[in-house]
Amino acid sequence: MEMEKRISLELRNKTPAEVAELVVDNCRSSDGEVEGLSDDYKELEFLSMVNVGLTSLAKLPSLPKLLKLEISDNMIVGGLDQLSEKCPNLTYLNLSGNKIKELSTVKPLKNLKNLKSLDLYSCEITTLEDYRESVFELLPQVTFLDGYDHEDNEVPDSEADDDDNEGLDSEADDDDEHTAGPTRDGDDDDEEDEGSEGEEVGLSYLMKDGIQDEEDDDDYVEEEEEEDGVGVQGEKRKRDAEDEGDDSDGDDD
């Protein structure tokens, strides 16, 4: 796909002035020049044109807010003085995989006062004797060259660190939730168990009371029956005694 068409698609219904990040990797420049970009991209902070066939930066528009520029795997041989004129606030520049051979080619980059990180991987310049020491001496504002500082300390990936910290915080929150969750569930289970046991005890108690009441009722009925029986027998004996008395009176007469 041609670079100009690709840039048009990447706008996604935005105006050039609204774009802060633009990635058009692996499209094609028809003549080795930057195509489709203009001074209207005044808010652009990140631009990536990896493997698009660039041989020159002469047509790069003025991008005053551009901080990061990725133009690796192209065929740029020089003309880097354009960068200090068009992108004076660059902090990161990736020129890996281009046709840069001499230290003199990167010398114009010393005018990029804010440049902190420079990548020249797979450029012929990296085969020069004392390559790293020479570049650091030539560009004193550069802190990291090909991912390492002058003392071979790797460049810190602050964005990755932030993401990792967020991930750890998120995982810690999840762990806290998981840890707290079972405890609460366990409490609920205990409460439910206690409630169930209470209900069972209550039911058992009521059932026992019911059985005891029934037994007491039965005993009361039996006692009443016994009392009734005793009463009947007493009445019978009394009547018999009266009958005998009547008989005796008759005999006396």
UniProtKB/TrEMBL annotation:
Keywords: Chaperone, Chromatin regulator, Cytoplasm, Leucine-rich repeat, Nucleus, Repeat. Its main location: cytoplasm. GO terms for cellular component: cytoplasm; nucleus. GO terms for molecular function: histone binding; phosphatase inhibitor activity. Signal peptide: none annotated. Residues 148-253 are annotated as: Disordered. Residues 149-177, 186-200, 212-229, 242-253 have a biased composition (Acidic residues). One of its GO terms (biological process) is chromatin organization. It holds the Pfam family LRR_9. PROSITE patterns: LRR. InterPro entries: AN32 (IPR045081), Leu-rich_rpt (IPR001611), LRR_dom_sf (IPR032675). It is found in: Cytoplasm; Nucleus. It comes from the Eukaryota. Belongs to the ANP32 family. PANTHER family: ACIDIC LEUCINE-RICH NUCLEAR PHOSPHOPROTEIN 32, ACIDIC LEUCINE-RICH NUCLEAR PHOSPHOPROTEIN 32 FAMILY MEMBER E. Histone chaperone that specifically mediates the genome-wide removal of histone H2A.Z/H2AZ1 from the nucleosome: removes H2A.Z/H2AZ1 from its normal sites of deposition, especially from enhancer and insulator regions. Not involved in deposition of H2A.Z/H2AZ1 in the nucleosome. May stabilize the evicted H2A.Z/H2AZ1-H2B dimer, thus shifting the equilibrium towards dissociation and the off-chromatin state. Inhibits activity of protein phosphatase 2A (PP2A). Does not inhibit protein phosphatase 1. May play a role in cerebellar development and synaptogenesis. This is Acidic leucine-rich nuclear phosphoprotein 32 family member. The lineage of its organism: Eukaryota, Metazoa, Chordata, Craniata, Vertebrata. The gene is ANP32E.
